[in-house]
Design brief:
Layout (H helix, E strand, L loop, with lengths): L16 H32 L6 E6 L9 E6 L6 E3 L3 E6 L4 E4 L4 E2 L5 E2 L1 E2 L4 E4 L7 E13 L2 H7 L11 H9 L6 E7 L3 E2 L1 H6 L8
Antiparallel strand pairs: 1-2, 2-9, 3-8, 3-10, 4-5, 4-10, 6-7, 10-11, 10-12
């Protein structure tokens, strides 16, 4: 007479918490291994061949009556369009307080508002600065298309990212392995506002 082995599922017994924990740990370790491999591949690709990237620049000019004294520009040297993120303009007064302004927009040479930039296109903006602002700088962010390998990988590994810590998940996302787009952030230098320098320090008025 043969004997049948009764499994826990046959007996109606639920899987133990330790089994579920081991299964979850196995998934996490597998995800980390895949991410580690992706990082190695990405570093190898970056070291082997760096393609053209957008370039950011600033051109200063005499201060205008509208309070502008420089123009920032972004040139798309890649072969695909890039998405433009909101512009951050930081100003510092004579007391060292820093204010953030995100009211500026990218435009083309005809002053049409831009939210993306075609290949070989150029975007501009000239922020208005108050005479009370001593220093000013701009911070720009944009998204450009990743390499072909990164885009192909991003289509197949999306579900594993929920198991990664936030910091690592963001790092991998910024390098194109989540949606095939690279995140870039450029911080311009602090510049002295010539209008503030010409007017001198502010003094309280007396009645």
């Amino acid at each position: 007479m043969s004997r049948k082995l009764l499994l826990p599922a046959t007996l109606g017994i639920a899987a133990s918490p330790s089994y579920a924990m081991k299964h979850r740990r196995r998934i996490v370790l597998g995800a980390v291994a895949v991410i580690s491999l992706l990082i190695v591949v990405w570093l190898a690709l970056t070291a082997a061949k760096a393609g053209p990237t957008p370039t950011f620049g600033i051109a200063t000019h005499p201060a205008t009556s509208g309070g502008t004294f420089f123009t920032a520009f972004l040139t798309n040297l890649t072969g695909s369009y890039i998405d433009l993120a909101p512009i951050l303009v930081q100003t510092e007064d004579e007391h060292g307080a820093i204010l953030n302004n995100m009211g500026e927009t990218w435009t083309d040479k005809d002053r049409n508002t831009l939210f993306s930039l075609l290949p070989q296109g150029v975007a501009f903006f000239s922020p208005h600065v108050s005479p009370t602002d001593k220093n000013v700088r701009v911070v720009v962010e944009y998204y450009c298309q990743a390499a072909g390998l990164q885009r192909r990988i991003s289509r197949r590994i999306g579900p594993i990212f929920r198991y990664l810590p936030q910091t690592l998940r963001q790092w991998v996302s910024d390098r194109g392995f989540v949606d095939g787009r690279l995140f870039r952030r450029v911080e311009g230098p602090w510049m002295l506002n010539p209008v503030h320098a010409a007017s001198g320090p502010l003094t309280p008025s007396s009645d």
